[in-house]
Design brief:
By secondary structure, the protein is of the alpha+beta class. The chain has one domain: Alpha-Beta Complex (Nucleoside Triphosphate Pyrophosphohydrolase), CATH 3.90.79. The chain has helices at 66-78, 131-139, 146-160, and strands spanning 2-9, 15-22, 26-33, 36-44, 49-53, 56-57, 80-92, 101-112, 125-130. Strands 3, 4, 5, 6, 7, 8 and 9 form a seven-stranded mixed beta sheet that branches. β3 (26-33) and β4 (36-44) form a beta hairpin.
């Protein structure tokens, strides 16, 4: 991660400071099969809470293939391998202060293998929930991760066009 403050000249002619966080690209994966979706839970230091969310992350380096990263994150966090990966789109995570992109993937043809947690994921756990339960958790605030909510919205738009 790189953090900088840029001196800027606003469009109204006033000077200012703009803080920018640069992070390498990331992915988020919707792993859905038989009416169930895979979620991960882990402690999120900035908010000092356990977070329930879709598998997601980056490798803290530039990537050549978002799909390779998506497959790797899915395997690391859930122990799943996917026969098919469909890229649904790309989102800016929070472009008011960071230049980090997040590629959204749908994983299908899931096969359980073995998790490969990295050091930051020592407390991570994965589980499946029904799609109805997942939607209820987003609605009632159990899931508050904006990346998860955005990925679900993009998936719903994609799915509506598949008919």
């Amino acid at each position: 991660m790189r953090v900088r403050e840029d001196e800027i000249l606003r469009s109204n002619g006033k000077k200012g400071i703009y803080g920018v966080v640069e992070k390498d690209d990331s992915v988020i994966v919707l792993a859905i099969e038989d009416g169930r979706i895979w979620l991960v839970e882990q402690f999120r230091y900035p908010v000092q809470e356990q977070g329930l969310e879709l598998p997601q992350g980056s490798w803290e380096r530039e990537i050549d293939s978002p799909e390779v990263l998506a497959r790797g994150e899915l395997r690391e966090e859930t122990g799943l391998e996917a026969a098919e990966m469909t890229q649904l789109g790309m989102l800016w995570i929070a472009y008011g202060f960071t230049r980090q992109k997040q590629y959204v993937f749908l994983a299908a043809g899931l096969k359980v293998t073995k998790t490969q947690h990295d050091a930051e994921e020592h407390d991570l756990s994965a589980r499946t929930v029904s799609l109805d339960e997942f939607e209820q958790m987003m609605f009632d605030g159990t899931i508050r991760d904006e990346c998860t909510l955005s990925a679900w919205a993009l998936y719903q738009l994609w799915k509506s066009r598949q008919r």
